Amino acid sequence: MTEIEAFRKYEGTLKLRRDLGFEVHPEAEPFDGMRFRVRTGWRIEDDDSRYPGEYAMLVDFDQNWPLGFIASGDLVDLQPVPQG
Asked: How far is the C-alpha of 44 from the C-alpha of 66, rounded, in Å?
């Protein structure tokens, strides 16, 4: 997996994890398998989420994403976008 850096843009494919024992957000289902441009948000803390230690990845505004963020563990083939 790609090492995630703060304030960096990435592209990755959404692969919803169904093996964590949590219900998948129904709003996210139609987007499973789609590519997204994201930027690093914040590190998710142990006490506030089902994704402790992962990063909240914020989706670019021009993409149609119905939820607040994508957990970094739900993105595969995550690659940095060249800066410039």
From this structure: 19
Contact (Cβ atoms closer than 8 angstroms) between residue 38 and residue 9: yes
What's the pLDDT tens digit per position in 50-76?
888 899 999 998 888 889 899 999 999
Q: Which long-range contacts (CB under 8 A, 24 or more apart) does 80-83 make?
A: 80/2, 80/5, 80/8, 80/9, 80/10, 81/8, 81/9, 81/10, 81/11, 81/37, 83/9
How far apart are alpha carbons 71 and 19 in whole angstroms? 15
22 and 51 in contact (C-beta within 8 Å)?
no
